[in-house]
């Protein structure tokens, strides 16, 4: 049963729905009205100016029946609400299980299935959303082999390095990724605005000795730090380093904390880039606290407790959430053979949009079949 009652001189409504009482203001309910004179039926965009609604708006009458709510407001407006839609809370955290080195089953997808079938593509994108990475097999081992699947999700994010770029050891490397050295766990390009959302790393050949990829769930690392040392966690959310990249034709700078929180205090983005970080000249006490916290975080993200090890085979591809995952690699020796990867970026908004639209379309298609 659903129970409703007014409160605060009818300026608020208490809704007891699914045994969870919620107190909602009249203004909040009014601006969320789905009525066609408030919300455009075609675009779903608001037609009224919410900021112009009267601050003393009251609820004249309210009734509920199961999952429906009817409200009559003091400005004469009447609205009918679907309570599931109205009171839906963010399930992002529940959709994203945190993992560590003990993760037994990595999310996987088949390139051709995802290319040809919307259900398989959605399954791939759901795995990427939940775990922050997915391992895709049977990718054509040509230089632009992953391009067709990117275009199913995309568009490809172009940077000063072009679109899909080589990741292999070269003379006069413009970036340390183009050398044989190992790379510490890091996020890509924190000096860009916006930071690329997803990294697509495609293996053409990997016969070199070493060169294994490492993955760490940055959300898990942040929560471990919060549990073990709340002061260190707080320091990494408050200090905003600058990240900088320069070459002969490019100068890129951006800033942000190593652990970024949303309005609910949940980690929504991590950064780590020892090669490009520049810490501002803060007061000495704050700097000392930051450096101690950064060291503890570094020890976490480089330790065995949280690190997964994968060695990509030709025709395999990792898609990684660059807001969530730290990735790196072991050093490699070319005496064992060639290691040639190709890498591209796809932004976060287009990836999320593709997933949510496919989820809606396939759910609608399933409901029509049932009907």
Automatic annotation (TrEMBL):
<dbReference type="Pfam" id="PF02668">
    <property type="entry name" value="TauD"/>
</dbReference>
<keyword id="KW-0408">Iron</keyword>
<dbReference type="GO" id="GO:0050353">
    <property type="term" value="F:trimethyllysine dioxygenase activity"/>
</dbReference>
<dbReference type="InterPro" id="IPR042098">
    <property type="entry name" value="TauD-like_sf"/>
</dbReference>
<dbReference type="InterPro" id="IPR050411">
    <property type="entry name" value="AlphaKG_dependent_hydroxylases"/>
</dbReference>
<keyword id="KW-0479">Metal-binding</keyword>
<comment type="function">
    <text>Converts trimethyllysine (TML) into hydroxytrimethyllysine (HTML).</text>
</comment>
<feature type="domain" description="TauD/TfdA-like">
    <location>
        <begin position="108"/>
        <end position="345"/>
    </location>
</feature>
<dbReference type="InterPro" id="IPR010376">
    <property type="entry name" value="GBBH-like_N"/>
</dbReference>
<dbReference type="GO" id="GO:0046872">
    <property type="term" value="F:metal ion binding"/>
</dbReference>
<dbReference type="Pfam" id="PF06155">
    <property type="entry name" value="GBBH-like_N"/>
</dbReference>
<protein>
    <recommendedName>
        <fullName>trimethyllysine dioxygenase</fullName>
        <ecNumber>1.14.11.8</ecNumber>
    </recommendedName>
</protein>
<keyword id="KW-0223">Dioxygenase</keyword>
<dbReference type="InterPro" id="IPR003819">
    <property type="entry name" value="TauD/TfdA-like"/>
</dbReference>
<dbReference type="GO" id="GO:0045329">
    <property type="term" value="P:carnitine biosynthetic process"/>
</dbReference>
<feature type="domain" description="Gamma-butyrobetaine hydroxylase-like N-terminal">
    <location>
        <begin position="7"/>
        <end position="86"/>
    </location>
</feature>
<comment type="similarity">
    <text>Belongs to the gamma-BBH/TMLD family.</text>
</comment>
<keyword id="KW-0560">Oxidoreductase</keyword>
<dbReference type="InterPro" id="IPR038492">
    <property type="entry name" value="GBBH-like_N_sf"/>
</dbReference>
């Amino acid at each position: 049963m659903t129970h409703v009652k007014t409160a605060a001189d009818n300026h608020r409504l208490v809704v007891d729905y699914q045994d969870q009482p919620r107190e909602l203001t009249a203004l909040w309910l009014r601006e969320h009205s789905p009525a066609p004179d408030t919300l455009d039926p075609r675009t779903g965009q608001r037609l009224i100016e919410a900021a112009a609604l009267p601050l003393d708006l009251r609820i004249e009458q309210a009734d509920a029946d199961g999952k429906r709510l009817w409200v009559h407001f003091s400005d004469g407006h009447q609205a009918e609400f679907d309570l599931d839609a109205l009171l839906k809370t963010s399930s992002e955290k529940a959709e994203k299980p945190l993992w560590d080195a003990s993760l037994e089953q990595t999310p996987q997808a088949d390139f051709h299935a995802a290319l040809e079938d919307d259900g398989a593509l959605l399954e791939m994108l759901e795995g990427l959303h939940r775990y922050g990475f997915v391992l895709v097999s049977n990718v054509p081992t040509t230089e632009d082999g992953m391009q067709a699947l990117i275009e199913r999700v995309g568009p490809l994010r172009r940077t000063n390095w072009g679109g899909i770029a080589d990741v292999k050891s070269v003379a006069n490397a413009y970036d340390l990724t183009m050398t044989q050295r190992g790379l510490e766990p890091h996020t890509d390009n924190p000096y860009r605005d916006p930071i690329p959302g997803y990294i697509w790393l495609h293996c053409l050949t990997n016969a070199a000795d070493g060169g294994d990829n490492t993955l760490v769930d940055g959300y898990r690392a942040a929560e471990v730090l919060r549990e073990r040392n709340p002061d260190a966690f707080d320091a990494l959310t408050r200090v905003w380093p600058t990240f900088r990249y320069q070459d002969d034709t490019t100068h890129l700078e951006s800033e942000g904390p190593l652990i970024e929180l949303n309005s609910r205090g949940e980690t929504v983005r991590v950064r780590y880039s020892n090669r490009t970080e520049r810490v501002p000249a803060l007061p000495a006490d704050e700097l000392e606290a930051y450096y101690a916290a950064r060291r503890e975080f570094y020890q976490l993200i480089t330790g065995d407790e949280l690190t997964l090890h994968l060695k990509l085979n030709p025709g395999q591809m990792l898609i990684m959430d660059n807001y969530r995952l730290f990735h790196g690699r072991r050093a490699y020796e070319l005496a064992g053979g060639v290691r040639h990867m190709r890498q591209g970026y796809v932004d976060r908004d287009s990836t999320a949009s593709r997933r949510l639209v496919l989820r809606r379309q396939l759910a609608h298609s399933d409901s029509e079949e049932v009907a």
